């Protein structure tokens, strides 16, 4: 075949016995043991998300208080301002929960344990700072929704999931040892960003690996699982009523088995690997999935659809100039609004999520 003839051919594969990506993914299995493990991991993650998201209600619960009286027996605990937060340990105080402008020091009930009593947040700017701790979490969650998808497109699904789970673990654990309300608020921001990242990307990676027929049912199951996590937050709030710090330590510790589970059973998305032209790694992951699903009857050999991630064309491929231009074209978020139908679907989704979040 002449050189001119090669240059005029469209993008195609010249080696026999190879597969297009959809065929290769189907051969590896879309509803096998690997997919079950991925869905179970997604459910586990949503239990944790519901648990952590609602736990702030119990760690910042209001505590009965009153202006300190010298006749009361009190114990000093750490506080965030010049006055010390006090916890009454003896006597039968009549807590009136009144903020007095002339009061220099407040005394708190010894139960329940709360950020409010530990950092003397009952009066002044305290209530606003406590509310800010929750608002900052959800603001970070929102910011992560805008950026984590782009990060996962660049770095990959698996690294971002594992990294964000690890980040959330350390930030949440550190918040249990916060010396003041400001450190606590800052660490809540980190937790919100990390939680949004791994919850969003885990779901995306799952949709790229399993049979789309099951997505609707899995989506409904996720909502039920999330509610179970919220109920778990109430249970832990009652159990650890005497120590909000211990409650946070227990919640953060639950991320360790989740991290190990993801590390062992959460492969990189083969679709992401293929789209980013990492063909060798994609082929390796697909063969790993096929083996785990008990379908490794023959090796999966992919048919590349463009140059490799290094910009080199596989020797099996012959491209014309038009195909090359298509491959070089980059996608971005504006493509979601590229056509009237796509724009309508995108805007409807945004409004729906915003409305549901408000409720």
Outline the structure in words.
It contains 14 helices and six strands. Helix 5 packs antiparallel against helix 6 and helix 5 runs parallel beside helix 7. Strand 3 and strand 4 form a beta hairpin. By secondary structure, the protein is mainly alpha-helical. The longest helix has 30 residues. The N terminus is likely disordered. The radius of gyration is 27 Å and the shape is elongated. The relative contact order is 0.16. The strands form two sheets. A four-stranded mixed sheet has the order 2-5-4-3, with no helix packed on it.
Shape: elongated
Low-confidence stretches: 1-16, 71-84, 87-92, 313-328
What's the helical proportion of residues?
Answer: 55-70%
- How far apart, in Å, are the first and last alpha carbons? 66 Å
**DSSP summary: helix tally:** 14
Strand order of the largest sheet: 2-5-4-3
**Proportion of beta-strand residues:** 5-15%
Elements, N to C (H/E)? HEHHEEEEHHHHHHHHHEHH
Content-based structural category: mainly alpha
What about the largest sheet? Answer: 4 strands, mixed
Radius of gyration: 27 Å
- DSSP summary, beta strand count: 6
Q: Please state the average pLDDT score.
A: 81
Topology of helices and strands:
Layout lengths: L2 H6 L3 E2 L7 H8 L4 H27 L5 E3 L6 E4 L7 E4 L17 E4 L5 H4 L7 H30 L1 H19 L5 H27 L7 H25 L4 H10 L1 H11 L4 H6 L3 H14 L24 E2 L2 H8 L11 H19 L1
Parallel strand pairs: 4-5
Antiparallel strand pairs: 1-6, 2-5, 3-4
Which descriptors apply to this entry?
mainly alpha, elongated, two-stranded antiparallel ribbon, 359 residues, four-stranded mixed sheet
């Amino acid at each position: 075949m002449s050189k001119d003839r090669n240059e005029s051919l469209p993008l195609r594969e010249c080696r026999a016995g190879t597969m297009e990506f959809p065929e290769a993914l189907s051969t590896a299995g879309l509803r096998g043991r690997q997919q079950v493990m991925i869905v179970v991991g997604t459910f586990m993650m949503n239990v944790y998300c519901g648990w952590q998201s609602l736990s702030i209600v119990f760690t910042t619960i209001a505590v009965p208080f009153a202006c300190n009286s010298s006749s009361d027996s009190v114990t000093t605990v750490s506080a965030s301002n010049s006055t010390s937060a006090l916890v009454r340990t003896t006597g039968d105080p009549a807590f009136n929960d009144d903020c007095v402008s002339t009061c220099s020091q407040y005394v708190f009930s010894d139960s329940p344990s709360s950020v409010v009593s530990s950092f003397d947040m009952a009066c002044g700017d305290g209530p606003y700072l406590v509310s800010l701790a929750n608002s900052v979490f959800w603001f970070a969650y929102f910011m992560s929704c805008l950026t984590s998808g782009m990060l996962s497109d660049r770095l990959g699904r698996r690294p971002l999931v594992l990294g964000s789970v690890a980040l959330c673990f350390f930030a949440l654990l550190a918040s249990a040892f916060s010396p003041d309300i400001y450190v606590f608020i800052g660490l809540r921001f980190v937790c919100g960003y990390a939680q949004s990242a791994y919850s969003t990307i885990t779901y995306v990676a799952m949709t790229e690996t399993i049979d789309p027929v099951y997505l609707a049912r899995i989506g409904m199951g996720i909502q039920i699982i999330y509610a179970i996590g919220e109920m778990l937050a109430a249970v832990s709030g009652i159990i650890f009523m005497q120590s909000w710090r211990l409650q946070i330590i227990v919640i953060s510790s639950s991320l360790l088995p989740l991290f190990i589970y993801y590390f062992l059973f959460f492969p990189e998305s083969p679709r992401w690997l293929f789209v980013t032209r990492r063909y060798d790694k994609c082929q390796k992951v697909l063969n790993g999935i096929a083996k785990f699903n008990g379908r490794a009857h023959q090796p999966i050999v992919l048919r590349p659809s463009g140059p490799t991630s290094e910009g080199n064309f596989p020797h099996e491929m012959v491209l014309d100039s038009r195909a090359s231009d298509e491959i070089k074209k980059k996608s971005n978020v504006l493509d979601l609004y590229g056509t009237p139908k796509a724009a309508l679907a995108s805007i409807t989704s945004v409004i729906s999520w915003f409305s549901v979040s408000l409720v």
